[in-house]
Amino acid sequence: MVTTTGTITVTPNNTVTLTSAAATTSQTVCINTAITNITYSTTGATGATVTGLPAGVSGLYAAGVVTISGSPTTALASPYTYTVTLTGGCGVVTTTGTITVTPNNTVTLTSAAATTSQTVCINTAITNITYSTTGATGATVTGLPAGVSGLYAAGVVTISGSPTTALASPYTYTVTLTGGCGVVTTTGTITVNTK
User: Which three-class secondary structure state does DSSP give residue 33?
Assistant: First the structure.
């Protein structure tokens, strides 16, 4: 009787396991702000590719760990669905997540350009000054003369009223957006004459 033997080695399929917090796979960040690092541990793979990331964010494979990190520099195609694909080893193994990038707030003058630099007599109504905004959830207006106020409603800032003093004229006002992303301001001047 003649026999022979051999060996068959069965390699299990690659695995990928999220090791950062579950919320990191679906995060929203402001443009130019670092994401919370996303990490995956792998078994079996010899490498990994990460596709679908926004510019400024990258995926790196080292010693069985995939790390996605960086600060997105664009929001044009947001949200970004990324895919981690393991290479080498056995099986086609992928996992996905989403990074939503919010652009910076904007403020745009919608009243006539001359309204941001106007001169009025005391106790006389100014020409309303209006700005449209995107991204912000509110706005503050500082530096206005008494009798003039700034109001934010439904994405619009309206400055209106009649100045009741001229003591510190000219008045340089500042509109500062709140909420959303970025520190966005704009200014103008109201000059109040006593006669």
Answer: coil
CATH code of domain 15-102: 2.60.40.10
* pTM of the predicted protein model: 0.82
Show the beta-strand stretches assigned E in the chain.
Answer: 15-18, 26-30, 38-43, 47-51, 57-62, 65-70, 80-87, 94-102, 106-109, 117-121, 129-134, 138-142, 148-153, 156-161, 171-178, 185-193
For domain 106-193, give its CATH number from 3.20.20.10, 3.30.450.50, 2.60.40.10, 3.40.720.10.
2.60.40.10
pLDDT tens, position by position, 88-110: 999 999 999 999 999 999 999 99
